[in-house]
Specification:
By secondary structure, the chain is of the alpha/beta class. The chain has helices at about 10-20, 65-70, 95-115, 120-130, 160-175, 190-195, 260-270, 300-305, and strands at about 5, 25-30, 35-40, 40-45, 55-60, 80, 180-185, 200-205, 215-220, 235-240, 270-285, 290, 295, 310-320, 320-325, 340-350.
Length: about 350
């Protein structure tokens, strides 16, 4: 039996395992080791990879960095199997070896990634279709081929963190019975769509241009840090789902300002009316900035920043589910390892503030 190492401990590694493989997994590799055990196997750092193995399965999105690291470390590139993310096939490309190790599902995804559709079930399906089809207008013409092979073994959809945070916030906003809502940079094709379908008028501010006009969606293109367009004490209901952590980092063309997110936190409270509601989602864990992508916050930092509001709920979206009513400090040491946990904060402004 072939001896395998898996480079990665995230969703891609789990997907590889779930899809089935042929071989014995000796352990896992993390470029920067953050845990000792994963899926019951030892985790090695990139500088302590054991020498006795047959192949390394690279189930990781940072393939270019891994490829460069392996070249510098004199790791045999021909023993690497890259599943995703490289522009051309590198490492082991032997079809028989790949089929032997990856088995049907993983091999289909591999072929789809590199455009090797003829190596999949597609040729067989074309033959069957041609034998069964009796309608001339729907006969297969090679000039009209549009091969898609990755969907056969893919799930019926994705329910990641954005799905759960959008559902969480939209449910609370809709149940509140409000007719007008203000939003800062949340997803249009998720949360905002939910509110519009429920008949709620939404005023949305974003530093980026909006793609088109939609009924009941009122848009403001501006930096939302100051909320200068909004009168103080006027907002009854407001949200910001995975948006404010980006403020001041320049990623979306906004000015560099290390305090931008905290300024926005302050201004949101000024703009809210007494009894107003805030629905907030931010990456939480060990506090840091991952420039220029985003910041990760301690949950306590967020709560302290909204000192004039009362926290009604703190939950988390991660790993395809919502964890309800979480202890504030539970994830203070969480470094994520490439997968993010979103803190879901529901605040109300006290009538006395």
């Amino acid at each position: 039996m072939l001896k395998l190492l898996i480079w990665g401990t995230g969703n891609l590694a789990k997907k590889f395992i779930d899809n089935g493989y042929n071989g014995e997994i000796l352990g896992f590799i993390e470029t920067n080791k953050r845990q000792s055990i994963f899926e019951g196997k030892f985790v090695y750092s990139s500088n302590e990879i054991p020498k006795e193995y047959d192949y390394i399965i690279v189930a990781n999105s940072y393939v270019n960095e891994i490829y460069d690291l392996c070249r510098k470390s004199d790791i045999d590139i021909s023993k690497l199997i890259f599943l995703y993310g490289v522009k051309e096939r590198i490492g082991c490309t032997n079809k028989e070896i790949l089929k032997e190790i990856l088995l049907e599902k993983n091999y289909t995804f591999y072929c789809s990634e590199f455009g090797l559709h003829d190596e999949t079930f597609l040729k067989r399906d074309i033959s069957v279709y041609q034998q069964l089809n009796k309608r001339q207008n729907f006969s297969i013409d090679l000039d009209n081929m549009w091969p898609i092979t990755e969907d056969k073994y893919a799930p019926a959809g994705t329910m990641g963190n954005y799905f759960w945070q959008d559902l969480w916030a939209a449910s609370l906003v809709i149940k509140s019975g409000i007719k007008g809502h203000f939003d800062i940079g949340s997803r249009i094709d998720g949360f905002i769509g939910h509110l519009l379908a429920a008949g709620i008028d939404v005023t949305m501010i974003d530093v980026r241009e909006f793609p088109t006009r939609v009924e009941r969606l009122h848009t403001i293109v501006d930096d939302a840090t100051s909320l200068r367009q909004i009168p103080d004490g006027s907002i009854e209901s407001i949200s910001a789902l995975c948006s404010i952590e980006h403020f001041g980092l320049g990623r979306y063309g906004d000015p560099i300002d290390p305090e931008a997110c905290f300024k926005c936190f302050h201004n949101i409270q000024k703009k809210m009316q007494k009894g107003g509601r805030l629905f907030l989602s931010l990456p939480i864990g060990k506090e840091r900035v991952e420039f220029n992508a985003h910041r990760v916050f301690y949950a306590q930092t967020v709560i302290d920043s909204f000192s004039s509001l009362q926290l009604m709920e703190f939950s988390c979206a991660a790993a395809g589910e919502i964890e309800r009513n979480v202890d504030i400090h539970k994830y203070d040491n969480d470094e994520h390892n490439g997968e993010y946990r979103y803190g879901l904060f529901y605040f109300i402004k006290d009538n006395c503030n």
